[in-house]
Amino acid sequence: MSISKQDVEHVANLARLELTDAEKEQFAEQLSAILKYAEQLSELNTDGIEPTSHPMPLLNVMREDEARPSWPLEEVLKNAPDEEDGQFKVPAVLE
Prior knowledge:
Blueprint: H1 5-14, H2 21-39, H3 73-77, E1 83-84, E2 87-88
Helix pairs in contact: 1-2
């Protein structure tokens, strides 16, 4: 399969790109080479290979959500510009 200059123009138009004629030719050649390389995959014998959605097994890498000791409230609010009832006080954003 090859990509024509008209195909590149169509995609460039959809992407709102202005390309010179030289760029259109260059992209057509490069994209055609990429597709030609990808076509080699169809030559591989994939009999007996299970389809996968991901090449590696997916594992949950998140740690358990466990309560841990944290900083003292006084230390956390020490540099706050304003605080009220143990919370940061910020300007209202909604009326």
